[in-house]
Amino acid sequence: MSDLEKDPAEVIGTGDCEGPVLEVLEAREVVLGRSTTVRRLLPNKNRRMVGAWCFVDHYGPDDLTQERVDSYDVPGERGMQVPPHPHTSLQTVSWLFEGEIEHRDSVGSHAFVRPGELNIMTAGNGIAHSEVSTPDAPPMLHGAQLWVALPDRVRTTTPPAFNAYADLPRLEFDGAHATVMVGTVAGVTSPAPAYTPLVGADVTIEPGRTLALPLTPEHEYAVLVVDGSLSVGELTPGFGEMAYLGSGRDAIELVAADNGVRFLLLGGEPFEEELVMWWNFIGRSHEEVVAARDAWQAAIDAGGNDRFGMVPGYDGAPLPAPPLPGTTLKPRPRAR
C-alpha cells in the first residue's frame, strides 16, 4: 500500500529502547483517496518504530458490496485500488485477515494476497508496485500493510525482489496458536527474507485463556489487536489499538477477553540507524529523498527508468509523488 496522504510529514527515527514498557499507541485515522479511512499505528506521535517496523496501517473490515464514493485512490472503484507507486530502502509486508488483493510490480511479479499467506516485497534501491481489489474479490476486506526499514549495509545493494509464501510455520500453545510471518518466534523461523533480527506473527488466543508468550530480552515488541481484546498488565487494548511492550522481557502474559483475541505481534532488535521517511521513500538524508522523488517523476515521464521500472499488466497511470515540503527534512527522535 502507498502512503497516499496529500501532505505527508517526514519522519526520522533513531534507535532507542528503554527496557520494559506498557503503553497504548492510539491509531491516527488517515483518509486515502476521498472516502477510505485506515488506522495508522506507526509512525506514531510517541513512537516511530518498533524494531525495524517503521510503518503499520490497519484497514477494514470493509464491506465491498456497499456503494462507495471511491476506493483507496481511484474514484468509482471498489475496495483497494492503489496505482503503481515507488518504494526505496524498505520491505513491504502485506497480510490479510479477510479478502483478496492483486499485486503487480516492476520486477514482473503477479500474485494475489490472501488470508494466511505472506507477500513480502524488498525494494532495495527502487521498485514500483500496484495493489488492487479484483471484481470477483470476496465481499469483505480486512488487513494490515507494514513496512520494514532495511539497514544501510543492504538497502541500496539488495536487488528488488518479491516473495510469496502460502505455507508458513505455525506454533501451537495451550489455548492459543500463531503463524510466524517474518523472523523468529519461540524458536520457529519464517522462510521470508529478513535483514535485521525481526519478529512478525499472527496470534489467536481462545476466549478467557492466558498465553505466556516467549520473548527475546534484547528485542522490543508491540501487539496490534485486530479482533477482540486482551489484557496485558494494566492495559486492555482493543480493536485497532497497539500496545507497546518495550524490551527486557523473556516472556509476557497476555489474557484474552471473553470473546477471544487476535493480534499481530511485531518486534525485533531496536533499529540503531537514523532514517528519514517521507511519502513512500526511506532514506538517510533530505537530499536522498529528493533524488528518489525526482527519479520516480522521471520514470513516469519516460515510461520507466533504471531505478524505477513500470508495472506490467496494470491498466492505468502511475501515482505521481506529492510536492515536497518547503523546508529541509530534519531529524526527529525515535520516541518523545
TrEMBL record:
Residues 316-336 are annotated as: Disordered. InterPro entries: Pirin (IPR012093), Pirin_C_dom (IPR008778), Pirin_N_dom (IPR003829), RmlC-like_jellyroll (IPR014710), RmlC_Cupin_sf (IPR011051). Pfam families: Pirin, Pirin_C. GO terms for molecular function: metal ion binding. Keywords: Iron, Metal-binding. Binds 1 Fe cation per subunit. It comes from the Bacteria. Fe cation binds at residues 85, 87, 129, 131. The keyword Zinc does not apply. Residues 201-298 form the Pirin C-terminal domain. The keyword Metal-binding applies. Belongs to the pirin family. This is Pirin family protein. The lineage of its organism: Bacteria, Bacillati, Actinomycetota, Actinomycetes, Propionibacteriales.
